[in-house]
Design goal:
By secondary structure, the chain is an alpha/beta fold. Helix content is 46%, strand content 18%. It contains 17 helices and eleven strands. The strands form two sheets. The protein has a six-stranded mixed β-sheet with strand order 7-6-8-9-10-11. A five-stranded parallel β-sheet has the order 2-3-4-1-5, with helices on both faces. A hairpin with a 2-residue loop joins strand 8 and strand 9. It is globular and about 70 Å long. 39% of the residues are buried. The model has no long low-confidence stretch (mean pLDDT 89).
């Protein structure tokens, strides 16, 4: 079984003395729980693993009971320490306040209980951490599987990764695409939306949110104004509602919206979004064509390949802490712009024969300190690019 790079970091931290609560968060089905089970098999420490997935949201008593059980087990075992792991922590209302109380009690009484919390709702995890647990935690974002990981684990080539994306649990189903698509839609998309958004956040128009996601998957890698989207929706609401729903979809690792790059922060925030999926499987699941048919349609394959580059950039933006944008002025455009401190890199994705792009010249005339490069035709091959940490290009 493949060991993700996050496991090495977490193992080192668990071998240290008790310092901080470790918080792991990220989308569903990227292997957070599997990684924890790998960790527990590696370290010789008394441990308890519990999940709040089926616990009533208001039941903070469950959390207190689990913690008290850990204290009793630590005392009875005579061990020097114990590791307590709680999965899907965001399902418990006011979880952060309860964790703060229990963690601080252990700190005062000398109970050497180390704690790992896992969650699949970035919004609720971040909210809980900032509200109650300041100074008591370290957080790690566990993202979708990279091309290198899918290649190592399943022997995939670059075209399989571009089309099928980075969900390891679905990899064994790709020879039966109908079954694979059903799994992605029913077990990943529907579960993420229903459990990580609709059950935990107020959404007045759930049908509108789902329709926005479907439209966004179709246009991943493309710029589409909310005003145009409204024309495709019967129960439209308004652009503010759509912007909020897009934010919710982004926070559970489904669909993001890139802002337009500008030196003016107001213009960035008021710009038309460029839709970008976090995992290309989410797009392919809705396609009417199969893998071979899609590959044989150059225009469609080109858009999917660009979206795959975007998933790589978007995932790394979280872990490497850079900002990701697009740039457009008139009919001149740059597919992706990375801003990392004072460094700026413009990336243009090409899957056809031509490498002509008048946007690069205009972009450089406005931002002469920036770097630009092609990905695909005439530049870094997509296969090579998906194995590079984008920060290394700066």
């Amino acid at each position: 079984m493949i060991e993700r790079v996050y496991l090495q970091r977490l193992t080192r931290r668990m071998n240290e003395s008790r310092k901080f609560i470790q918080v792991l968060y990220g989308p569903r089905q990227v292997g957070k729980t599997t990684m924890i089970l790998q960790l527990l098999s590696k370290i010789a420490v008394e441990n308890i693993y519990e999940t709040a997935d089926t616990v009533a949201a208001a039941d903070t008593r469950w959390l207190q009971t689990v913690w008290e059980t850990a204290r009793i087990k630590l005392k009875l075992s005579g061990a020097g320490e114990l590791l307590l792991v709680i999965d899907e922590i965001q399902k418990i209302d006011n979880w952060s306040e309860t964790v703060k109380k229990l963690w601080d009690e252990d700190s005062r009484t000398g109970n050497n209980i180390k704690v790992i919390l896992l969650g699949s709702s970035s919004l609720l995890i971040q909210k809980g951490l900032t509200e109650s647990l300041a100074g008591r935690f370290e957080k790690t974002y566990i993202g979708h599987w990279s091309f290198a990981e899918m290649q190592s684990a399943f022997g995939w080539d670059i075209n399989q990764y571009i089309y099928f994306g980075g969900y390891p649990g679905a990899a064994s189903l790709i020879d039966d695409e109908k079954r694979w698509k059903s799994y992605i839609i029913d077990s990943l998309i529907e579960t993420s939306i229903s459990k990580d958004i609709l059950m935990l956040t107020r959404v007045d128009k759930p049908a509108l949110l789902k329709r926005l996601f479907e439209i966004g998957t179709h246009y991943s890698g493309q710029i589409l104004s909310f005003t145009k989207i409204l024309g495709q929706l019967l129960d439209a609401g308004n652009t503010t509602t759509l912007s909020h729903y897009l934010s919710l979809l982004s926070n559970c690792g489904l669909l993001g919206g890139l802002e337009k790059f500008s030196g003016n922060i107001v213009k960035k925030r008021g710009s038309i979004p460029k839709f970008q999926l976090y995992n290309n499987a989410l797009r392919s699941a809705y396609l009417k064509t199969d893998f071979l048919q899609t590959f044989q349609e150059p225009n469609l394959w080109g858009r999917i390949a660009e979206s795959a580059v975007g998933t790589h950039l978007l995932g790394n933006a979280i872990t490497e802490n850079y900002k990701l944008y697009y740039w457009r002025e008139g009919d001149c455009e740059i597919d992706f712009v990375i801003e990392y401190g004072e460094k700026i890199l413009g990336l243009e994705v090409k899957s056809g024969v031509s490498t002509q792009n008048k946007g690069i010249g205009k972009f450089l005339s406005q931002y002469p300190a920036a770097k630009t490069m092609f990905v695909g035709t005439g530049g870094i091959p997509i296969e090579e690019f998906l194995n590079i940490n984008p920060v290394e290009l700066l």
